[in-house]
Amino acid sequence: MTDAARRFRSLTPLFAPRSVAVIGASSDAGRIGGKPIAYMIRQKFQGALYPVNPSRDEIQGLKCYRALADLPEVPDVAVVAVPAPFAPQAVADLASMGVKGCVMLTAGFAEVSDAGAAIQAGMVARAKAAGMRLMGPNCLGLFNAGIGYYATFTASVETGWPMPGRIGIASQSGAYGTHLFTAARNRGIGVPICVTTGNEADVTIGDVIGWLAQDEGTDVIAAYAEGIREAESFTTALAAARAARKPVVLMKVGRSGLGAKAAQSHTASIAGDDAITDAVLKEFGVVRARTTEEMLDIAHLATRKIYPIGGTLGVMTVSGGAGVLISDAAEACGVAMPEMPAAAQQKLFDLISFCAPRNPVDCTAQAFNEFPKVGMFLDSLCGDGGYSTVLGFFSQTGGAPSVAARLRETLRATRDKYPDRLYVLSILADAEKVAEYEADGFTVFEDPTRAVVAIDAMHKYGDAFARAAGLAAPEVPEVRLPAATPSEAAAKRLLGRAGIAAAPERACVSPQDAVAAAQGFGFPVVMKILSPDIVHKSEIGGVLLDVKDADAVLDGYETLLQRAAAHAPEARIEGVLVAKQLSGGTECIMGMVRDPVFGPVAMFGLGGIFVEILKDVTFHRCPFGADVAEQMIRSIKGAPLLLGARGRKPADIKALAAMLSRLSVFAVQAGPRLHSVDLNPVFAMADGEGAFAADAVLQLCALTHDELGDV
């Protein structure tokens, strides 16, 4: 078992205990210390339940123990519901006893003050030293309805208990996690497990996802996050879920600057950059939900456990207008809807001469007047069309008593003939009829647009689960960073050792040296001021393009020195950089930034206005192989400009991918002192002619006193 698997497995005493102590137990079933006991009594918790309160002999009909030392056994988990000043002692006592899990409902720690954060850190240190996992503090707790375990004070269960099902919820927010549960229950969706993590002093949302990925009773994981505190457990958990073919649908809030600030103040966690979060989720095949409704739609459909690879959608409809609506939604999501084969279209024309057989296939209401034709159309969609997913829009017709029974029989026959397909219906019907369709294996949505969004998610899961392991990242020599941010020339030399090519260039310390360099490269050339203190050279006029002859080089040298003196008089000047001026390539940008959550992340996009205005860029965690780099390059909207659109020569994608992959390894090798790399522009030359960085900026974090002594 891996360290990650052991970390996740260590949560079993917390999430599926055989015995529970409630510290701060109350006889009042309406208080925080009373609700867990009341809930577990009502739902017949399958293990032993021990209330602990120094002033009681009996609580809610159960024997109460005055101290932990009086318990007849060491419980698997303790629910702590005491005032904040008493919480550290409770943790110390539990750790000394050898309790394996603690659910800290008590609030008033890192979420309120630095002093509270220090107390919280002390509790976690004590728990970890004893091998005890601590959930919270400041959490709403959790429930595992399958064993009647309710270590929570949520009021959500007072309006209805969890239904049997295969979906597990992991949420940083207690209120929103139980909101998701309640919304699911109200829709008849079974969510027997809901875990809320609060401050995440120890147990993180990644830990919970990892445990659910190993849980035999869970097929689908729905998660709510405001910020990712611990990246390693999070990404390891997502990898475990993908390996187990368990879809993860995540609502990650904090997209906006305002939202990110709200998340920080609420959970004392870092929201990170949303574009980078998106990239990480995509890497692991996680689907991001925008709304509660969307999350539940996706999770509910995912319980069918049919995840098409390279999914295609075939639509049968009784409404041409609905077919257009569905087509629009599919195009917006990127769901493929290829046409029916020509022969199949003719066959459907022969059945109903005024049908629309392309896809969507509009069988019209006439099909229901000659009911066997409904089955013929469905059979053709699956057999002739070969679609992996079939969406039937039957609206109120599917709910009509005169139609529903025969339609169900027809649908079942198609399902039995093609059991490997994903079947979705858009029907307006009462709850009883919807339940009948769902029991037959068809997931029902009122709104066909919502159905398409959920279908798109299933296709994404299928592709993610089928994705082969990527190529190994290339080997790069050990990277030794200088003591301070280097000049452009020094940065390129450093990158060059990692196999990242630059345009031919030379650092020159005199006008005559610059002329010799230019003549060696051949005119025209580019000239730049060379200084580690002038990062944005173009802003001070520190870059001269299209320098055509020796006289222009002499004039340019003096011009650059004068501009540097005027605009950056304190800057250290190392001379002038003379470079061969490249032509005929496509300008790109690539770089890396050290994300506060996920570490070094590589970026790629087209240069010029495409990055400045259109923000057409893509991200991926470092390091990665050339195959991932090529996928990044091909994923941007402007990729056709690199691939030969409108008669352009295709760019050297292989060389560009190799450079990006090597940059990703360089970023990891360089370590935490490397804050960012900016290669802009990178010229992608014609296929077979390579890719070259025309400019390079490395931003380094300042050395500590001890590090400075090692340089």
Could you characterize what this model shows?
By secondary structure, the chain is α/β, with parallel strands linked by helices. It contains 26 helices and 29 strands. The strands form 6 sheets. A 7-stranded mixed sheet has the order 9-8-11-10-12-13-14, with helices on both faces. Strands 24, 25, 26, 27, 28 and 29 form a 6-stranded antiparallel sheet that branches. It has a 5-stranded parallel sheet with strand order 2-1-5-6-7, sandwiched between helices. The longest helix is centred in the middle third of the chain and has 19 residues, at 448-466. Residues 262-272 have low confidence and may be disordered. The two termini are 40 Å apart. It has 4 domains: 3-302, Rossmann fold, CATH 3.40.50.261; 313-466, Succinyl-CoA synthetase domains (Rossmann fold), CATH 3.40.50; 504-580, ATP-grasp fold, A domain (Dna Ligase, domain 1); 586-710, ATP-grasp fold, B domain (D-amino Acid Aminotransferase, Chain A, domain 1, 2-Layer Sandwich), CATH 3.30.470.20. The chain is flat.
What's this entry about, in short?
This protein is α/β, with parallel strands linked by helices. It is built from 26 helices and 29 strands.
